[in-house]
Model the fold of this input.
Amino acid sequence: MFQQDELVPPPPPAEIQYTGEYSVDPLGEASFRKLCGQVPRVLHRIVAMSWRIDRRAVLLLLACPVVTGAAAAVLLAATAGAMRPLLGAGSVADRLYEALPALVVASAAAALTRVAAAVATYAERLITPRLTTEADTALVAAVCRVEASAYAMDGFSDRQEAAEMGVIRTHVMVSDAQRFLSALVRMVTAAGALSVLNPLLLPLLLLAVLPAGVGAVLTARVDYEIHYANIADRNVRGMMRWWSTNPKYGDEVRANSMTDYLLFWHRSLSDRCDRRNLAAAPRTLRISLVSSVAAGAFLLATWGALAWLAATGQIGVALAATAVVAVQTTLAALSQVILNGAALFHTSLYLTDMQAFLDDAEAHAPKRGNSAIDRDTEEIRLEEVVYQYPGKDTPAVNGVSLNLRRGEILAIVGVNGSGKSTLTRLITGIYLADTDPATIWRQTGLVPQIFAQWPLRVRENVTLGQPRTHDDAPVWDAVDAVGMREAVEDLPAGLDTLLAREIFGGAELSGGQWQRLACSRALYRRPGLLILDEPTSQMDPRGEHQIFEQIKAIAADRITIVITHRLENTKIADHIVVMEHGRITEQGRYDDLVHAGGTFAELLALSQDR
Ligand SMILES: Nc1ncnc2c1ncn2[C@@H]1O[C@H](COP(=O)(O)OP(=O)(O)OP(=O)(O)O)[C@@H](O)[C@H]1O
Done:
């Protein structure tokens, strides 16, 4: 893949050795018996999940196996009834005539089995799409609702990736459960009939399918083990795939000749996953071979026993013929029980991951108390605030005290990594507060340093989070406030234009225009607390001037915080704080700080030294 003149291949992607709290392989801890015991629990969970979606379809689904079982019993009894005359004495026509009623009943039972199977498939189709949607929505909601700090938790995204597999598995789990139940009922019926014919045949038959069952469960274990080992690589590959193929980054990828390396990266991760899969192939082959040989030997013994019983006259020819049908039916049903049981077991592993993730996400949803913040907050006071990110040795914010008053503009400046953004996150209550965060967020407007470019229409890009009215006038006010009217009017459908170049009919904005839109979103909210983190970093001087004029014009009604590296912009602030290593090291008004000879003066001098 690399050009020939590049002799040294690039280093491969880092191997992620995940050793966190959640790195325990659930299979390593569960015994074979314990795992088999999970099947009833999984069935119960599937029924409960489906019940919430469509009770009638569930009842239909549960009724079908009963019908199938009854039909199988009738079929066997009718077969036995037909065998006696068919294998008896007399002309062929007489024997057929005598067997006719039993043959009609057998045909009707067979037809009923088919109808039950068709109805079961119909019921399953009523449930599955909605079940998948429910599971998918629950997962997305869980991730969106956790405390933002949960994203920094050990292995959060890997466990999310594992949970995604549970969602994918919902596509097949209802049909697996339905097939399992129906095969189980058929098996019990046929096995009952077989025991009546001769008690010796059933244990032999059970022995014949048991190896296949053990083989199927062991294979499912191997599959899950590989899935588990591949999670981290698949997760990284998925992220890299998104970044590599996203048209937004297409220019950067091409102009910096990243394509080859990104493809190499993608290929290396895929190869790594493939190697694990390939290494498992001989194991699954061994499992299949051993279980097939054992199953074949036991099956041979079953047929041998049947032949011996017939040869020694212990059962009649008619009974022996019925026993052949019963053995075939039981065998087919048993194999289905085993195969679908293994599939359910397989599903249970992924569902357990999904449930564990959902439970964990629920535990990390904001539960901070019910006190609400009044609208039009007059003052926010911070006293010796400290915040340390998980896994970090030093606090990002370290002993900060501040008074923010309504009507005032606070500017925060400082070098990269000094804790400015973290401080604003604390203030918006994203990370800390004893208050219901929704009541805080309702009053805040935030323009983050890295903002989302939503693939929505212009209108929703402005109103997202707060669609107040069907009236476009306030939307245009917000658009005007950031100087975007002309640009929006030039778009093919004005406010209705979809801002996603990738989608047919979509349009694209420039970086600065996107940033103006992010500002208009915050202004549209008319928040009591307005936080702008480098809000004009991509704007031309005219846009920047307009935004800061706007901030000044609306400052009287709110608490405003601006983070900026362009120190000239801090002239609009009533108070400026300079942060270093998480602490406030200087503060005052612009003119004071310019002459104070500290970090502010130094940074300002550097910005003017060209
Ligand atoms: N989500 C996070 N998880 C862990 N550490 C973080 C996270 N966000 C920031 N940090 C760390 O916290 C410290 C302060 O970061 P912060 O983003 O608050 O700095 P900043 O002053 O806003 O920097 P910049 O000027 O580059 O925007 C840095 O050391 C950074 O590595």
The two ends are 44 Å apart (CA to CA). The mean pLDDT is 85. Residues 92-145 form the longest helix (54 residues).
